[in-house]
Write a structure and sequence with these properties.
The complex is a heterodimer of chains A (110) and B (113).
Chain A: E1 4-6, E2 11-14, E3 19-25, E4 32-38, E5 44-50, E6 55-57, E7 60-65, E8 70-75, E9 84-92, E10 97-100, E11 104-109
Parallel strand pairs in A: 2-11
Antiparallel strand pairs in A: 1-3, 3-8, 4-5, 4-9, 6-7, 7-8, 9-10, 9-11
Chain B: E1 4-7, E2 10-13, E3 19-25, E4 31-37, E5 43-50, E6 53-57, E7 64-70, E8 73-78, E9 87-94, E10 103-104, E11 108-112
Parallel strand pairs in B: 2-11
Antiparallel strand pairs in B: 1-3, 3-8, 4-5, 4-9, 5-6, 7-8, 9-10, 9-11
Classes of the chains: A mainly beta (110), B mainly beta (113).
Amino acid sequence: RKEVEQDPGPFNVPEGATVAFNCTYSNSASQSFFWYRQDCRKEPKLLMSVYSSGNEDGRFTAQLNRASQYISLLIRDSKLSDSATYLCVVLRPGFQKLVFGTGTRLLVSP
Amino acid sequence: DTAVSQTPKYLVTQMGNDKSIKCEQNLGHDTMYWYKQDSKKFLKIMFSYNNKELIINETVPNRFSPKSPDKAHLNLHINSLELGDSAVYFCASSQENRDYEQYFGPGTRLTVT
């Protein structure tokens, strides 16, 4: 089983739609979780951290469910510029090493 | 000013050759990394250096040898290139105690023919 698993998509949504991605992780000792964004043929960039209490940054909301070992990212009012691959990332405990999921591709169309 | 830069951006070479990729960061970070992103877009760490010392060395063939001449530079040398080495190689850096916030370079697209 992969350490971090994501639905690869693509998710095709119209502008203005709300879309949610889930990600599961296998190491129950993991403490820190993040979402990175990677545009086509570009480098990954940190989008937001994921806290137990959930956190919101504008149109983006990230949540963590420790019991079920999954992380979610909700994007409201999708924009064309949101089209990208969203990478779920877990900090492997004890090794200070980021483990990336394979990413979920989002395509927002006019 | 580019925060994390890599050269070259594209590298096409034949099997069996030896090549190097260079990385430099001007963020003053203490930790630098090399990642490999394969054709299935899976991004996996290869090496990590902190203040010029190797701290993470994943299961990578010993044909791959990183070198950190100073904490702003981390180069990757690859010997005897194989077809399976074709991938995008990303360099990244982070501040100490903020390993989760990594700044990536633009990537080097390596094609081995």
